[in-house]
Amino acid sequence: MPRMTMIEAIRDAHAVMMEANPDVVVFGEDVGYFGGVFRCTAGLQERFGKSRCFDAPINESGIVGAAIGMAAYGLRPVVEIQFADYVYPAYDQIVSEAARLRYRSAGDFTAPLVVRMPTGGGIFGGQTHSQSPEALFTHVSGLKTVVPSNPYDAKGMLIAAIEDNDPVIFLEPKRLYNGPFDGHHERPVTPWAKHPLGEVPEGRYTVALGKGEVRRAGSAVTVLAYGTMVHVALAAAEDTGIDAEVIDLRTLVPLDVELIEASVKKTGRCVVVHEATITSGFGAELVATVEERCFYHLEAPIGRVGGWDTPYPHAQEWNYFPGPARVGEALKRAMEG
Amino acid sequence: MPRMTMIEAIRDAHAVMMEANPDVVVFGEDVGYFGGVFRCTAGLQERFGKSRCFDAPINESGIVGAAIGMAAYGLRPVVEIQFADYVYPAYDQIVSEAARLRYRSAGDFTAPLVVRMPTGGGIFGGQTHSQSPEALFTHVSGLKTVVPSNPYDAKGMLIAAIEDNDPVIFLEPKRLYNGPFDGHHERPVTPWAKHPLGEVPEGRYTVALGKGEVRRAGSAVTVLAYGTMVHVALAAAEDTGIDAEVIDLRTLVPLDVELIEASVKKTGRCVVVHEATITSGFGAELVATVEERCFYHLEAPIGRVGGWDTPYPHAQEWNYFPGPARVGEALKRAMEG
Amino acid sequence: MDLKLSLHVPEPEVRPGGRPDFSGVKIPKAGSVKRPPVDVDPAEIRDLAYSIIRVLNREGRAVGDWAGSLTDEELLAGLKTMMRVRAFDRRMLMAQRQGKTSFYMQCLGEEAIACAFRKAIEAGDMNFPTYRQAGLLIADDYPLVDMMSQIYSNRRDPLKGRQLPILYSSKDHGFFSISGNLATQFVQAVGWAMASAIKNDTRVAAAWIGDGSTAESDFHAALVFASTYKAPVVLNVVNNQWAISTFQGIARGGSGTFAARGLGFGIPSLRADGNDYLAVHAVSKWAVERARRNLGPTLIEWVTYRAAAHSTSDDPAAYRPKDESDAWPLGDPITRLKNHLVTIGAWTEERHVQAEAEIDAEVLAAQREAETFGTLHDGPGPSVRDMFEDVYETLPPHLRRQRQEAGY
Amino acid sequence: MDLKLSLHVPEPEVRPGGRPDFSGVKIPKAGSVKRPPVDVDPAEIRDLAYSIIRVLNREGRAVGDWAGSLTDEELLAGLKTMMRVRAFDRRMLMAQRQGKTSFYMQCLGEEAIACAFRKAIEAGDMNFPTYRQAGLLIADDYPLVDMMSQIYSNRRDPLKGRQLPILYSSKDHGFFSISGNLATQFVQAVGWAMASAIKNDTRVAAAWIGDGSTAESDFHAALVFASTYKAPVVLNVVNNQWAISTFQGIARGGSGTFAARGLGFGIPSLRADGNDYLAVHAVSKWAVERARRNLGPTLIEWVTYRAAAHSTSDDPAAYRPKDESDAWPLGDPITRLKNHLVTIGAWTEERHVQAEAEIDAEVLAAQREAETFGTLHDGPGPSVRDMFEDVYETLPPHLRRQRQEAGY
Ligand SMILES: Cc1ncc(C[n+]2csc(CCOP(=O)(O)OP(=O)(O)O)c2C)c(N)n1
Ligand SMILES: Cc1ncc(C[n+]2csc(CCOP(=O)(O)OP(=O)(O)O)c2C)c(N)n1
Ligand SMILES: [Mg+2]
Ligand SMILES: [Mg+2]
Question: Taking the model in full, what pTM does it have?
């Protein structure tokens, strides 16, 4: 099976879908001729022509707004926001329009579009190349919000997202683009080529939206994570020797509640982890869900690890990033509680 | 002491501050000559002149962006977003700019501005006149987010917000403008004139940001609420006869954690309530906070009541709105658990 | 430097208590503005952004290059459509006052724009309207009963009670779901038009926005995208002088006109008399033909006047002279078209009175029928189950649980 | 209708492998564009949005109405400032390559714009810059060591390690905190200017934006607000032909120029040679005077060329011909000013070489000093405590708890 980085897997998902369905169009800032600042759309314009893949003016509201119009026409636009940090100008179009179009028109019009964006930190990108805004989407009814953690899922989920008839927010942890990153920034990076999930089938396959996956079975404590934090959680389990069950949520809305519930009822302990700032982060929703469904099974307070409640700093990156040490501490606390 | 509606109290807070401080300026859509679609700024232009209170073009990003520039200059702008549902075009200016200016410039520039907006439902306003977007602000470091529930607090907190040196998101539950509303929409409305918190002192006074208030002392269960839901929670306590302690949070960030913790440790039970959609709402943060701090005191799962995870419907309003019946059910469940 | 700065805040000429004064509105003579070929170089017609294209003159005659785009029968049909729109507004306004629904917005005085525009486009074309283009639906024979059912949020409401009254949606009638958020539709229309171009289709889009809403940023996004990709779209700005209580000078600022906004994008930009059914149709046709011939977007400012309150929540007496509407120099679109038809001998005052009665009866009958399906507070409305549908294509588990919790 | 639509996607004339071709760029002769009085009616100077104001001719002479705004000494100082900016860029680019920081952005080829503009404003005025106006700071003698310390995020960094390199802030030097989010500053500048007008102050603001970023919606918001309130602000568009890999035709669409964007707002809009220090200064002065005299905003498009990569993360060889920069017809701003000074006898090649060496040494000395305070990965940087400060004026309880959890 071919080995791919996450970038290659994403590019391939685009190509597979553009080949399969002439209604799939791709655009965004620098995505056309150049193929995207992270090269996720490289080669698509040459292969599918300028009206299927093209550069957009720097106006995120325009990009999403035009995509909504195209989707209402019957196309399946896949747009890139250059960094998740730049999605806010498009927030109104996403929240007030894409998310509500089916509902408010009672299905007369729909907005099957995918909004892709590189997310997360760990690249010394400072305040505006590091944010994780998923919670700002999970609060909005009508959106699906997903975060793949590896090339295999990235391709399968992007295809599923493009085929989905609802708007999907597709967050790509940029620190994972070229290899799994477990937060041990002092160690050399392993490439995806050496990781089983770097094996990516050719052609079309899907990873269903709404389904999580156990990445490490364990009996001591359940860790709920997604994106980069999946790898950090695995490292923390390894580093601490705690037999954690690490769940990669993959889709945040709709959430795979059954999987979570079964695991926490088994382990009786739970830690939730994300890169985003803690207060009102998606971790809060996870805690609330677990608290509600597993209250009588919980033996310790649910641990919550996330970015500090500050803007993402530049030089202090490794003090900000919730790395394996902090997650490890939370695991220990969960075991003590 | 004068009796005021919430509208009058807000208007008065503006006037007191504009009188006291020539740097306070007020603008927004229809707020100048006309005095705002809810009349919260009526009379200010006439009294303080057109350059202190004026109409703005319909561009929410421009309104907040210009206010940031004014604040950086040294003014204290208070801007109105006509309905909270229309704040999204300004979201980038609020999140990427106002919230981070002090941090990114290390205090060289600051953005002491207040963004006021009518929020919440109960007026048959449909999808775009009913939303409660507080959780979209509580997730953003650098913002303070407040929601008064009565005329006394509205005036005192608005003055505190204007005097605060950080950006404040000031959410005004529009269903409370003219009288306390407890969700019993089938009953006639009581005016503020008949409510003790409709007594509003003249002149300057403040209600500190960051402090909640117990609205009903009780021993059976703690209810955490804010805005309109405070009144609904009180009604639910009354209707069910459950001896609930109802806390009016007033400020969501920074949160009065001590008050919450003390109450829940006392009652051992907790229900959180808001109008916003449940998933990733501020209620999730409240549950997570209580779970973390009061885990060993909790006798039942924390109840969470909110708007359903759908856009705000028009005709089904009273099935959507989390009224006293639904809150009452949650209280009962919390007592059984 | 001694000079002190000061803030300039634009003000309308007159406020309540004052005498309405539109002497500042320069109105060219009907027929005086030339009609360029549709493939004209935009740089050559910049002056059209500062004039007003008009066809009907004071004597009720159709004059000039832009005249003649419609037959007498078509004009008569247009007259009746406008009358139907007005009767509809009157009825529904009353229904709102009677508590049969929560809210209503009229298009009084602006009927010609949507009604005539609809006749310049084809089936399959798509409008992205605001809340004052009900005429697009009525001119396309969308059933009045369905419109009213939407307004009543009754059990026949095609939108299942979810939307505020008048925020219609009808794909079949080329009418995109109206949003409560201003201006978002403007760039969506451009995207729809781009899609049509991508698919080598022949259909075109029309975007609609109010004068006040041109200040919104999505107006800019739309112009940028339309100009860059030469999208087949007609960009309509309905300048009815007011945005709730705010006069158009706040949105327009120092520019002469709203049409002028298009010039900086190299988009052909026209200004036309929105109260002149013939001018609206001719100018729309011109722009639609440009779009259809792949010549790109056109911006049109329709000059008109919002004769009624902004909505049922508004009382304009607080911010403009009561009789300003009567002083509006471009007159009333229905009266003007009627006079034209009478002048050319295609219509009479008697037949007009009779038609009025017929149309009223027709609208009343529709209302009666709509009410058999209920009104907002009367009769079983849309089901609570419906409240949970269409958030997603299929009901996800968490919404199923919530629906159960709600008891449905 | 048989004709099928198709999507138009603008393309640059040439791509890698092709021969650079700027024959389409119409360049008027130096001195040929008239200088109107500052209180001119904007409608009378619309042509200035389609021309290019230039002062230095091919022979290195200053010619025409716009010449003469600076003395020879001032010009010489300007030359040295531009050389300092360029030397600074070279050093810091190298430092980034050596791993001393994470990221860098040059303004190679665009030095004249910020450097000369700074000399047209006064202390107290406020710039709202983008990341390519370091010249504003250097021309105002902001300490190079502080700039470098910011770039290094070292313990002298005035921004305490929080900001990406080059996103400087200095209120004292009239330089607003740079945002990583494009265009937001444009309307903030208008707000600052409105504040100055509200307070009957005499200070004016300057807004800065790139060609690509004019597509952003806050550009529109700024124009709407500036035009409505006649804010005392100079709206600068730096058209360096590229937005990362995207040529300016994507943002500009069908309009002739970026300056033309201002016309629809009734804002006087000028286009000027951004590589001509004299033209930049004279045009800036004109616009600043308009603002200061309460005559309102001016939009200026500075025509220039981004001679280097977008940033250290970019390699332009992938999307434009390697030698395109050399083919740029407006030349290099430093060479042009040097030639002018040599031509008029105020400077010599020898002194230039010597000055180059002196400035290099000065910049190197600053770098050495800055490095004594550490570089990004070397030496104790800003404290972790600092990471929790300045989120709010005072540390709220939850951040205190988090800081404790972090061990500080
Ligand atoms: C984003 C947004 N901001 C504000 C509003 C509130 N609002 C509704 S209509 C209106 C005035 C619009 O005026 P105009 O565009 O001139 O249209 P008109 O009502 O005159 O047809 C305003 C401010 C809104 N609906 N959406
Ligand atoms: C809101 C936002 N969208 C996208 C970006 C990513 N980005 C950074 S610079 C840039 C290009 C800007 O080009 P231009 O305005 O021409 O300025 P130049 O770099 O040429 O000086 C882009 C797309 C951003 N920083 N902010
Ligand atoms: Mg209007
Ligand atoms: Mg550029």
Answer: 0.98
